[in-house]
Design a protein that fits this description.
Elements lengths: L4 E3 L4 E2 L13 H10 L5 E5 L8 E5 L1 H12 L8 E5 L4 H12 L7 H14 L5 H8 L3 H11 L3 H6 L8 H11 L2 H23 L7 H12 L8 E5 L5 E8 L3 E6 L7 H15 L21
Parallel strand pairs: 2-4, 3-5
Antiparallel strand pairs: 1-5, 3-4, 6-7, 7-8
Helix pairs in contact: 1-2, 4-6, 8-10, 9-10
Length: about 300
């Protein structure tokens, strides 16, 4: 026999630590409830004596918000919340909510990282082994989220919005933070990028892509190798127009061919292409406006 019961959603409240759900956040659920009803039961637990509500939502906070919205609109004032009642400790309630939340794609890695960091201290006495066991997670996976929450503030600012940082980004940033000298360089680069992001926001431009931010931060610490030291520009017929070579002493030597028969504009363009090629990191690619083409490497 099912232990699912129907509750007046007014008897239930979300956890005090959980932010309020906006109308926009539960709009898709309202439409789903209207069409198909509540498919998955929520989990609730009794509140302490003296609480103004009878139950606290453990999982299904958005379902509760959507049903409350349907009732408040007058469209379906008798819609009830289907739920299971469980007697759970705070740690058990957090674990149950986490299992529910892992199925959702609208919770960012950063939001999860903050939740795990707070729960580690408040509910698991700072013991990540106990926490990982309670959540059914690998310790390494939990560790990545805890490291993400503990990233220095300049890195969050460099991304513009911390919700844009993922554990995948963290795995690539972690080697840059292990050495104090590297970490200092990384944070200096993050400060510069944070200023750039602020200027973009003030001017109405979009933030740099997270992948671009990650690339620039890593390259500030571990510069990419330069392109091969020799570069040649050919004409359409395959004859040489110019060859450049990077040499010791931070110099470039340049040989031009057919200077009496090749237009000066083409020689100048070939020279510019060679300099750009020989001074660019091999795998570096700046963002370009959509639809623009890379710099030509032939004439």
């Amino acid at each position: 026999m099912s232990d699912i019961i129907e509750l007046d959603p007014g008897l239930c409240r979300r956890p005090a630590s959980h932010p309020a759900i906006t109308t926009e956040e539960c709009a898709y659920l309202v439409a789903s409830l209207r069409d198909s009803g509540q498919q998955a039961a929520a989990i609730v637990r009794p509140t302490p004596p003296g609480d103004s509500h009878v139950f606290e939502i453990v999982s299904g906070i958005r379902r509760h918000a959507a049903i409350s919205a349907l009732r408040a609109s007058g469209e379906n004032p008798a819609f009830m919340l289907r739920a299971r009642i469980r007697t759970l400790t705070d740690a058990e309630a957090f674990a149950a909510a986490d299992r529910d939340n892992r199925q959702r794609r609208d919770i960012t890695d950063y939001r999860r990282a903050l939740d795990y960091s707070l729960a580690l201290t408040r509910l698991f006495a700072g013991n990540p082994l106990d926490m990982a066991a309670a959540l059914g997670m690998q310790l390494t996976e939990l560790g990545r989220y805890l490291m993400l929450a503990a990233l220095p503030a300049p890195i969050f600012s460099a991304f513009g919005d911390p919700n844009r940082i993922t554990t995948a980004h963290l795995r690539k940033l972690a080697p840059c933070l292990q050495n104090p000298a590297h970490a200092k360089t990384l944070l200096q680069a993050a400060d510069r990028l944070a200023l750039d992001q602020s200027m973009r926001r003030l001017s109405g431009r979009s933030y740099l892509r997270p992948e671009t931010i990650l690339h620039r931060l890593i390259r500030a610490v571990f510069p990419a190798p330069l392109a091969p030291p020799v570069h040649t520009i050919l004409s359409e017929s395959g004859t040489r127009i110019a060859t450049g070579q990077r040499r010791r002493g931070n110099t470039i030597s340049l040989d031009l061919f057919g200077v009496t028969t090749t237009p000066a504009a083409r020689l100048l363009q070939a020279t510019a292409d060679i300099i750009a090629h020989l001074t660019a990191p091999r795998d570096f690619e700046e963002e370009r406006p959509r639809g623009s083409a890379p710099l030509a490497t032939g004439l």
